[in-house]
Design a protein that fits this description.
Blueprint (H helix, E strand, L loop, with lengths): L1 H27 L15 H23 L12 H50 L2
Helix pairs in contact: 1-3
Keywords: Membrane, Transmembrane, Transmembrane helix
Length: 130
């Protein structure tokens, strides 16, 4: 009876751990990596400004942006900045879900391995008792 129970438990643990690995891979593949490219595309407005002013135009833009009036408070973040931080929350949730499934799979495989070691120990004890 115990042998049948051990085999069934091993099958269930291995199946659940494999299912957790598949869910982890599926969750990790849902992350949108289009926004995180090595060379992000440059907008057409930036290209036009660079063509008109050359390199000196970009340098003067940097100077005017960095030098502000000391009494003026800094501007609030624009909608694009807020929108970018809102998109990171679902991405983080997807990664956390993938990591959770991966940890469940590791725990399942570790439990299945422990069950196999217990069965081996029981068989060796039975052989030693003869």
């Amino acid at each position: 009876m115990a042998d049948w129970l051990g085999r069934t438990l091993l099958l269930v643990l291995s199946g659940l751990a494999t299912f957790a690995v598949l869910l982890s891979l599926q969750s990790a593949s849902q992350v949108d990596t289009a926004e995180r490219s090595v060379n992000p595309p440059v907008s057409a407005q930036n290209d036009d400004a660079a063509d008109k002013g050359g390199g000196a135009g970009r340098a003067s833009d940097r100077e005017t942006q960095s030098s502000g009036a000391p009494g003026q408070p800094s501007a609030a973040p624009g909608p694009a900045q807020i929108h970018a931080s809102d998109q990171r929350a679902p991405e983080t949730a997807i990664w956390l879900r993938a990591i959770t499934y991966a940890l469940l799979a590791l725990a399942g495989f570790a439990a299945a391995g422990l069950l196999v070691l217990l069965r081996i120990t029981a068989l060796l004890a039975r052989i030693a008792g003869r």
